[in-house]
Amino acid sequence: MKTAQSTAEKSSSVGTRERIVRATSRLLQRQGYEGTGIKQISREAEATLGSVYHFFPGGKQELAAEAIRHGDQEFAVILRAGLGSSEDLAEAVTTCTTLLARELRASDWQDGCPITTTALETVGRAPVIEQAVAEAFAHWRAIVEERLRAAGIGGEDARELAGTVINTLEGAELSAQVARSEDPLHTAGRHLARLLATYRPSA
Amino acid sequence: MKTAQSTAEKSSSVGTRERIVRATSRLLQRQGYEGTGIKQISREAEATLGSVYHFFPGGKQELAAEAIRHGDQEFAVILRAGLGSSEDLAEAVTTCTTLLARELRASDWQDGCPITTTALETVGRAPVIEQAVAEAFAHWRAIVEERLRAAGIGGEDARELAGTVINTLEGAELSAQVARSEDPLHTAGRHLARLLATYRPSA
DNA sequence: CCTCCTCTAGAACGAACGCTCTATCCAGCG
DNA sequence: CGCTGGATAGAGCGTTCGTTCTAGAGGAGG
Question: Residue B53, CB, less than 7 Å from strand D?
Fold first, then answer.
């Protein structure tokens, strides 16, 4: 049991289950839930259908929920990297948008938020997925909120602003994908910095 | 030719083509592009498959593009209603979010932005749809921009802020759907009003 | 009357869907 | 050595997909 990857199976040294989750996460990000088939997943993950259903007996929904949690962590890494890049809050926020813009352009405007598409497709129709999505959003808000508090923004303000920061980033990323331009993200960064500045009279 | 609706065909007095577009628009809004089948559309529209392909020989993509344009107009109506509701800019913006929140709750958090889901699903894979989406976003930005100029915000600022207003509304609506709560929208309204206020020293 | 043309109607096609199922492989252990 | 059980492998199930195709309904113009 737990054979893991033994000795560099398949193309990389990562176990079958992990390969399946990663492939699913990337496919959901790019083509959404309905647009991604289990067979396509098993193909891209270099796993067989049998393996997919072995590790995820709950089928497509369970697999998608796990992939959403993976995307959650992925996005959190970027968020933390940006927010931790500077003592100055405004700079930290614009670094976030810059990081997102860079990744988006590098993927030819394909890799937006890892979970948004799936989230929208499954609203009110796949509870397991919905919960994973809700947890991801809460997780990201918590990361931002903590940074805002570190910058001296207090109580209710930090919580609410964290929500708006995440929402605006989401909207800007969507816009950037549609327009194939980094501009919406950069503009969002500047506007968010400006909004946050109104909560701290001066530097 | 142009029989239109003659004498109150089907359930309502609207012609077949229009019924198809409306049904498609609502289905795309709720289940996205891949999750919506042509046969389901023809069923809901009370039209036959033959009629669908008669009016939209370009198939699903052409039909979706037309539905996106329909959703564009629909959202524009709400936007104009909100923005035109008050002389005060801040109040006008929060009215927008209130209208969106009301509609969202009334549909049990199902009817978010009419085009976002389809937009994300088709990024980089369905040019006809992508263009309709891009035009819708540009349209909405133009509506907001005009209102901002009427409020005395000038030049580049109005253009950029209009983009951020739309983006933040989009993100907040997504969040509201996921969280099944009006809060993200109301918060977004307040934060947007606050951001805009920094461009006009006082009332 | 017949002709033409728009629109309606739905059977049928090959492909893909999610999922089930049986069979096999193989490391660990008694 | 055989046994056990996790993991792999993929054929095949019934269903639905987007699309094509032929046939007919119904009104307008000759």
Answer: yes
Q: What is the distance between the alpha carbons of residues B60 and A34, in angstroms, rounded to a whole number?
A: 15
Report pLDDT digits (tens) over A69-102.
999 999 999 999 999 999 999 999 999 999 999 9
Q: How many angstroms separate the CA atoms of B117 and B110, rounded?
A: 12
Q: Give chain B's largest Cα–Cα span.
A: 60
CB A194 within 8 A of CB B195: yes
Q: Is the pLDDT of residue A171 over 60?
A: yes
Model pTM? 0.93
- N residues, chain B: 203
The answer to whether A34 faces chain B, any CB pair under 8 Å, is yes
**DSSP annotation string for B80-143:** HHHHTS-SSHHHHHHHHHHHHHHHHHHTTT----SSHHHHHHHTTT-HHHHHHHHHHHHHHHHH
Query: What 8-state DSSP symbol labels residue B61?
Result: H
pLDDT at B165 over 60: yes
Closest listed residue to residue B65, CA positions, set B25, B125, B97, B123:
B25
Residues in chain A, total: 203
| pLDDT over 70, % of chain A | 92
Q: Is B113 left (phi over 0), alpha (psi -120 to 50) or beta?
A: beta
3-state secondary structure of A115: coil
Nucleotide with C1' nearest the A63 CA:
C18
Mean of pLDDT over chain B? 93
For residue B56, say whether its CB is under 7 Å from any atom of strand C: no
Residue B3 burial (10 A CB sphere; 0-12, 13-18, 19+)? exposed
CA B69 to mean position of chain CA atoms:
9
Contact indicator for A32, A112 with CB cutoff of 8 Å:
no
d(CA B100, CA B109): 11
Closest by Cα among B108, B77, B83, B109 to B95: B83
Instruction: Tell me the per-residue pLDDT of B50-62, one tens digit each, with 9 for 90 and over.
Output: 999 999 999 999 9
Is the separation of the CB atoms in B193 and B97 below 8 Å?
Answer: no
In chain B, residues with a C-beta closer than 8 Å to the C-beta of A195 are 191, 194-195, 198
Residue A107 and residue A174 in contact, taking contact as beta carbons nearer than 8 Å: no
- Of the candidates A37, A35, A172, A23, the one whose C-alpha atom is nearest the C-alpha of residue B125 is A35
